[in-house]
Amino acid sequence: MFLKGRYKHLKRYRQIARVLFKYGFSEIADRLGLPSRLRLGRRQRRAEEEVRKVSYPVRFRMALEELGPTFIKLGQVLSMRSFLIPPELASELSKLQDEVAPAPFEEIRRVVEGELGGPISSFFSDFSDEPIGSASLAQAHPALTRDGEDVVVKVQRPGVEEIVKVDLEILMDIAKLAERYIPESGRYDPTGVVRELAKTTRRELNFRNEARNVEIFSRNFSGFDGVYIPRVYWDLSSTKVLTLEKIKGIKISDLEAIRASGIDPKDLAITGARAVLKQIFEDGFFHADPHPGNLFVLEGGVIAPVDFGMVGRLDERMKEELADVAFYIVQKDVDGIVRTLIRLGTLPEDADVRSFGADVADLVDRYYGLSLGRVDVKEVLQEGYELVRRYKLRVQPSWMLLGRALGTYEEVGRMLHPDFDLLTMARPYVRKLVRERFGIKRGLRELVGMADDLRKLARVLPYDLERTLGKAARGELGVELRHMGLERFIDELDKASNRLAFALVVAALIVGSALVLQLNRGPFLFGYPAFGVLGFLFAGILGIWLLIAILRSGRM
Question: Domain of 121?
Answer without folding.
Answer: 99-246
